[in-house]
Specification:
With 367 residues, the chain is mainly alpha-helical. Helices cover 69% and strands 2% of the residues.
Amino acid sequence: MLYYLIGLWAERLNEAGLGSLAELFRSIVFRASAASLTAFLLCVRLGPRAIRWLAGRWREPIGGDSAQLVEMNRAKKNTPTMGGAFVLASLVIATLVWGNVLNPFVLLGLLVTLGLGSLGAADDLTKLSGRRRGLSEREKLIGQLAIGLAVGVGLFWLVRDTTFGTRLAVPIWPVYVSIGVLLVPWTALVIAGSSNGVNLTDGLDGLAGGCLVFAGAAVGVLDYIGGHARLAEHLSVPYVPGCGELTVLVGAAVGATLGFLWFNCHPAEVFMGDTGSLALGGLLGFAALVPRQELLLVIAGGIFVAETMSVLIQRYYFKATGRRVFLCAPLHHHYQFLGWPESKIVVRFWITAALLSILAVATLKLR
């Protein structure tokens, strides 16, 4: 909104000697920072009322296949859930205020966020109704892939004629692999994988949110560099015109997540639910796809990758041998079973996420 108002007032501001103010409000760095702060303040402001409203309707039932894990988390029973709803509301409002919402990448990013948020809400409501333990894995995956394919078609149409549009950038080395129309299913896989990774990590107070802040900050830097011709050339990374505007959307997501952590830190007053984790995870994957740095997301989002791999390894190794690799999966539960306090697990995962995010950005200089 402000982006367009400043454009309309640019001539009058110049006449009044305030041209520098207009330039400031058109700056991506300034607007991304402002969007982050706005989303944070909105989340903190909306949080108490939203939590009271959620507490009267939807509270987390603690269940699972492990009696020991259920017992460990008994104190969390009846905590309000679906807090992702006010996170997404803050994110969207901040983006509408500070972003160029006619930018096609921003529109696709909002489609991913709201589409997966709706899927997550359907999963949460199905679970909270007591009829089933949420949507089945197949139902969720079909929904994620359907949204991912729709976004993939849009992304392919936007970038098909650009220099790096359908090429994968290999981290560290200046190597690019052309995948052509396969960008469409590849987009769906990346979005679904990132969405599920964050969802699996969302099992301890503040764990997924904190890791998202660090990974989101790294991806926001990648978006800004990818949309800046001189920086992209200097660092030998793909230049994708218009990609930089995603920095505002990602900034809003980081700010909203920080606002949610205000209430979700241990002991949590509210849980994100699939409403938030699926949406924010999918947005993270999409924001890495646009600047063609999705392979670098494996490093920046290394915690989410490790959590996902721990589940897959546990499941298929158990099917093959009848034995377990981890005491419990996802990975954070393994450390719970080892006797680590919840706060120690969360902070150490945060530290790891921060280091991985720094490493991901640092690899750009190695190309």
